[in-house]
Fold:
Amino acid sequence: MKDPNPNNPPGYNDYRGIKYCPCDCHEDGDFHVCMICHCEELCDNPPKLDGKKTRVGIEYIVYNEEQFLKSVLLTTASRLRGVDFMFILDGAWKGTGGEAHSTDKTKEIVEECAIKIKERYKIDVKFGSIDAEWRTQGEKRNFGLRRAEEIMQKIDTECNWYHMILDGDEFIRFHSGLEEMWLDKQGAGLDQIWPKIGLVGAFAARSSKELWTPRFIPAFQNYHYHTDQRMVIHDKNCVPIIDYNPAKRSYAEKLTTKIHQFFLLNKWNVRDISRGMMKMTYNAQTYPNVPAKCLFNSLNT
Structure:
């Protein structure tokens, strides 16, 4: 049944042990299994699926990530099931020291982890970079999306693909006692939400403030990051879908949905001081306080 109190969280158990279902569910025979709490509930209006399999590629955009990267990659591989590959794109932004590639042990860590992840979890890990600094973080992220889609096309052209976007200092955490989770309909419910953008809650280390961030982006839709503003995602016509800057937090409700099954712990605020200052200086110098034009379509024609 649905919880009569709309203020309770999804899957809430009251003091009598009754588990309420929000009925945000998918069809499973005569019943519909809730994608959040997995209870069986009859549903008058289940969502319609297109019948295609949903597959996931995880993408990391990194630069000098040796502090947390090994733990991050191994933890993610151990906790998420249904991942086809990981793609790690390395590279510096302009004004961060003159080196196009990470100057620490980032590449060596990726190579070491790739062997372990392939052996233990059967996930291919691919490393990429270019011999130039990136003008903006948005252009780097968009390049990563395109390269990942090239990998996707080589694997399967008959399915629905999702990009899962993570950073090199982010850890997967569950709200429950789970230690691992499938990303399909029995876990995070990606089969059901396609083609919406999946939002996942993120917390900075030692913080209780949650920021809903776009982490599952449907592939081959020309969704992209604003090239000249931080934390903004556009559709193919450069119309904003999401602005997840903490001061704005604007989301197109019809094109996005929240995924409650896990959250992210982001350790950007407890990183090595020199690396943190480098990123803060870059952001202050690169991104203006006034609206800027997105150059995605002109750069990709």
Summary: Residues 1-48 form one domain. The first strand starts at residue 25 and ends at 28. The chain has two domains: 1-48, 55-299. The mean pLDDT is 83.
